[in-house]
Amino acid sequence: MIFQQLEHDLDERAARGLLRQRRTLETPQSPHIIVDSKPYLAFCSNDYLGLANHPQLIAALQQGAQEWGAGAGAAHLVSGHFAPHQQLEDRLAAFVGKPAALLFSTGYMANLGVVQALAGKGDTVFADKINHASLNDAMLLSRAAVKRYRHADLAQLAQLLAQTKNGRKLVITDAVFSMDGDLALLRELLDLCERFDAWLYVDDAHGFGVLGQQGRGSLFQAPPPKGEGLGWGSSPRIIYMATLGKAAGVSGAFVAAEQAVIDTLVNHANSYVYTTAAPPALAAALLQSLQLIEQGDALRAHLHDLIVQLRNGLSDLPWPLMPSETAIQPLLIGDNRQALALSEALRARGIWVAAIRPPTVPQGTARLRITLSAAHSAADAERLIGALHELAQES
């Protein structure tokens, strides 16, 4: 019977330490939460600046709902595009130094829409092997030829680009790799795109709001030379996507690019065309969030201090921290069951850190994905450090 097969498959997954389960929060997003009636110190949220429960965003959302209602009622191209949506698109485009921007309901839908709209039969998509699942799904949906290169292997990418003579070329990459925490070599990738006449599509889900001057993202991570304006990040070849439910603390995503690219997405990105618009109240909240991001240097400085504290404090564990300068700090365990056991042992001590296993990460690289937020205190980080040292002594 079909249900017996499903149950068998789930049992097999559980036996391999790969079964996924949900837990329900009973408090707003914060480092200090209640789950199943128990208090936890959480290190598994992508709320990097601690804005998800910020009183100014709550007030802006309430005011937005009061003024614009609870829902959009239609797709953007019908009657669901409201003044706050347009204001937010204009503001986001200016913030990241692009001519235009387009809002999507989620980063997943943005990736599906962009890649499908810009690449198809006869074209080629080039992808880093550890890109996010949404980028992988997007390139398959596009029906373009797919060429994957080893993680951060620019020489192999150059070889693949050189071998491709026909059609559009689209290089797609995470800016901050979500499970490793390392940074893509964006400037070098752009150089290759210039050399081989390709687009560069950058998914900056984990960089926007956190990296770069005033939190403008990975394209602004290094200041441009004097007199060069926005520098290399303003290249028209770059199509930039960032999510708005992580550091921005709300929900959604946007794509920023040349006007011709945005107009193409409006006409051909199915995940935009055929989706009801997000409530305009969310756009009102995000306008407030963008102001907090722009003024958030102190939050980013505190987050940086926490990253240094954590890396120093965990440097002598039997499990190594993977190389990362970002808020994503993966602790490499290796074995699936050991990673789960370590996560459960932390949970028993009131600390919540997610265990990440295949297929999300390669076989043999199960890990604890520690994520830090500006809402954490130094004492919070020290508590995690101490608990991991205790568990290391017991193992």
Q: What is this structure, in a nutshell?
A:
The chain is an alpha/beta fold. The chain is 42% helix and 16% strand. The protein has a 7-stranded mixed β-sheet, sandwiched between helices.
Q: What does this molecule look like?
A:
There is one protein chain. The protein is an alpha/beta fold. The chain folds into 2 domains: 20-49 and 297-394, Alpha-Beta Complex (Aspartate Aminotransferase, domain 1); 55-294, Type I PLP-dependent aspartate aminotransferase-like (Major domain) (Aspartate Aminotransferase, domain 2, 3-Layer(aba) Sandwich), CATH 3.40.640.10. It is 42% helix and 16% strand. It has 14 helices and 13 strands. The chain has helices at residues 2-15, 55-68, 76-80, 83-95, 107-118, 133-142, 154-163, 186-196, 259-268, 270-273, 280-294, 297-313, 336-348, 378-394; strands at residues 32-35, 38-42, 100-104, 124-128, 145-149, 169-174, 199-203, 238-243, 253-257, 328-334, 351-352, 354-356, 366-371. The strands form 3 sheets. A 7-stranded mixed sheet has the order 3-9-8-7-6-4-5, with helices on both faces. It has a 3-stranded mixed sheet with strand order 1-2-11, covered by helices on one side. Strands 10-13-12 form a 3-stranded antiparallel sheet, with helices on one face. Helix 5 (107-118) runs parallel beside helix 6 (133-142) and helix 12 runs parallel beside helix 14 (378-394). The two termini are 43 Å apart. The model has no long low-confidence stretch (mean pLDDT 95).
**Helical/strand content category:** alpha/beta
CATH superfamily (homologous) name of the largest domain? Type I PLP-dependent aspartate aminotransferase-like (Major domain)
Distance from N terminus to C terminus (CA atoms, Å) equals 43 Å
Whole-number tally of structural domains: 2
Strand order of the largest sheet: 3-9-8-7-6-4-5
Q: Could you say what the CATH architecture of the largest domain is? A: 3-Layer(aba) Sandwich
- The rough form would be described as globular
Low-confidence stretches: none
Q: What is the number of E strands? A: 13
